[in-house]
Design a protein that fits this description.
The complex is a heterodimer of chains A (138) and B (548). Chain A is α/β, with parallel strands linked by helices and 138 residues long. Chain A has one domain: Cobalamin-binding domain (Rossmann fold, 3-Layer(aba) Sandwich), CATH 3.40.50.280. Chain A is built from 5 helices and 5 strands, in the order βαβαβαβαβα. Chain A has a 5-stranded parallel beta sheet, with helices on both faces. The longest helix of chain A is centred in the middle third of the chain and has 14 residues. Chain B is an alpha/beta fold and 548 residues long. Chain B is 49% helix and 7% strand. Chain B is built from 22 helices and 10 strands. The model of chain B has no long low-confidence stretch (mean pLDDT 94). The chains are: A alpha/beta (138), B alpha/beta (548). At the A-B interface, α1 and α3 of A face α4 and α18 of B.
Chain lengths: 138, 548
Amino acid sequence: MPSTAVRPVRIVVAKVGLDGHDRGVKVVARALRDAGYEVIYTGLRQTPEMVVDAALQEDAQVIGLSIHSGAHMTLFPAVIAELKRREATDIILFGGGIIPDDDITALKKKGVEQIFTPGTPLQEIVDWLRKRLPESAV
Amino acid sequence: MKVRARDANQVWQEEFEGAPARDDGIETSTISGVSLKPLYTREDLPRRDEEFPGQFPYTRGIHPSGYRGRLWTMRQFSGFATAEETNRRYKYLLANGQTGLSVAFDMPTLMGQDSDAPTSRGEVGHCGVAIDSLADMETLFAGIPLGDITTSMTINSPAAILLCMYIAVAEKQGVPADKLGGTLQNDILKEFIAQKEFIFPPAPSMRLVVDSIEYCAKEVPKWNTISISGYHIREAGSTAAQELAFTLADGMAYVDACLERGMHIDDFASRLSFFFDAHIDFFEEIAKFRAARRIWARWMRERYGAQQERSWKLRFHTQTAGVSLTAQQPELNIARTAIEALAAVLGGTQSLHTNAMDEVLALPTDKAARLALRTQQLIAYETGVANTLDPLGGSYFIESLTDEMERQAEAYFKRIDEIGGVIPAIESGFFQKEIADAAFRYQKELEEKSRLVVGVNEFINDEADESIEILRIDPLLESQQSERVREVRRKRDQAMCANALQSLRKAAAGTDNLMPHILEAVRAYATEGEIMQAMIEVFGTYTETAVV
C-alpha cells in the first residue's frame, strides 16, 4: 500500500489505433493496479490527442500504449509529437504489442522509453516502472 | 488367473497412489481449468445409445462419410497491402493446392472507413488488404473465377457492404448471385463481446445482420450468411467452455432475431456456420468441437422446432490459436500449429486455417504461409488420421470431457438467460468481465509457472538472435491507396452515386431490407466509408464502457 506521504503514481493506459485487441492492455492494467499504481484505462480507439488529454487531466506521470494493428510507427511518434506540443514531455511513455525488434530500436530513439512484446512477464513491467520511478511509494 | 474388472481398477488405484508423483508444480487441469482425473475408465462413459456420424445429435460428425467422403477445406486467411498484391498471393496459394480463399481486410476496411480518412493513418494495408470501393474489389478478384471457388470474408460491421461488392464483382464476371459460394463472418455479437470492431449500436447492427441473412436466403442461397465466431472470444482470453457457450448463445440470439423478423427456421438455419479456435490443450479442444455439434443439434430441433436435418447440423471452420504463438523461438510455432490443427481435424472441422510461424510478429511471408498450408497437407495425407471417422469416439476420456464441456455450456446459457439474453449481457459487461478474468488467471499461472510455455517462461534460449524474416508493408502504399480512392470518387457518375446514398439513408430510417440499397450504392462506386457514413447518420455509433 502507498504511504500517506507520497501520492501514488498514476498511469494512463490506452489503446491507440483502430484495432480492438484489448486482452493485453487489460491484463497489464490489472497487474499494475495490483502492484499499487493508480491505473486509468481509456478504452479503445484513442487518438494521440485524446491520450495526452487524458494524461494531463488525470495528472498522470506515465502513459502506457498498447497497439496490435501494425500502425505503431505512425502512432507512437504521433503521441510523442503531441506530448511535445502540449509541453508534457516529462510524462514517461512506454508501450507494448506486436512490434518487431527493428521498430523497437527506432521507437526508442524517438523517445518511447520501453516496449514490452508478447510473452513479457508482468513482473518485468512492474519492476521496470519501480526502477524508473524509484521515488514512487508503491 | 482372471481378475475381475472392479478388482483390477482397485489394484490400479492403490498402485497409482503408492507410486511417486511428479512434483514440478505443473497444473494437471486443462488450460481452461477443467480438473482431470489421471485415468478414465468404462465407468466414466456416459450411458447412452451408440451414436453414428451423420446422425442426430452429430457428436461424431455431421457427415456419414466424414473425411472419407471429402477432406476439410484448406482455407488460409490472407490479405495485405493492396488489392493487386493480395490478388497475386491468392493466385500463388491456389497454385499451391489451397482449395478456398479467405480475405483478411485491413483495419480501416474493418472499421468501415476509407484509406484517406485521418484516423486511417498508419493502418492502411497492415493487417490485411485495403478495400475502399468496388474498384478495389474488382482488382482483388481479377482473373479468379468466382463461380468456381468459394470465398470467406472476415468482416463484421461493414459486412453487408463487402458482400455487395463481391456480388457486384461476380455480376461483372457474368456469375449470377445464386451460383456464389462462400462465407461472410458478419457476426457482430462477438465484436461487442470480444473483438470490439463495432460501429453501430447493437439494435441496428442486428438489423443489418438479419437483413443480409434474409436477402441471401432468397438471392444468394449457397452463401453462408454468418460465421458465428468463438475464435475471437477465445483469443481475447476466454476458456474453452466460455468460447463454446458464448458462441452458441450468440447463435441462438441470431436465430431469435431472424424468427422475430418472421422468417421460418428451416429457411435460414442451414446457412448459419460457426468458427472456432483450436488451442493447444489437445483433448479439451476435441471435446469442445464434439460438444458444440451436439448442443446445437438439440437446441435447433428441440427448442426451435427445426424440421430439416440440415438445420440441425453445426458446420464449422477452425483456425489454430494465434494467441498460443510465441515471438520467442518462433520456429516452435510450426509444432504448436500442427498439434492444434490435428485437434481440429480429430474434432471434425469442415475447414481449417493453420497459422504461419511468423504471425506473432507480422503478416506471414510467402515461405511461412506455404509451410502452414503444407502442415495441413501433411496431416491430411501422411498421418492417416483422415482414414477413420471420429477416431476418438468411444474413448472414456474424450466422451467424458465432451459431456463436461456440454454441462459447462448449459450452465452459462442459464446465467445468460438470467441476465435477460445476449444483448443485455453485453451491455452489462458480463461477457467482457468473464473473459478478462480468465485472461488474467491464465497470465497469473504463467507468472507462477504452474503452466509453462516453452521458450517464454521456461526453456528459454539465451542466444539473443531469434530473428526471422518478416513481411514489411511499403509505407508509400498508404498515399497510393488514398490517391486511388480519390480517383474513384472523381471519375464516377456523381448523380447516380448521390442518389444511391440518399435512398440508402431513407431506407435506413425506415424498415426496408437494406441490402438492395447497399448494392445500388456499391454499383455506383460509393466508397465503403461513404456508405457507412450514410448509415451512421441514421443509426449513430456505439461506445463501450471499458471493463478492466
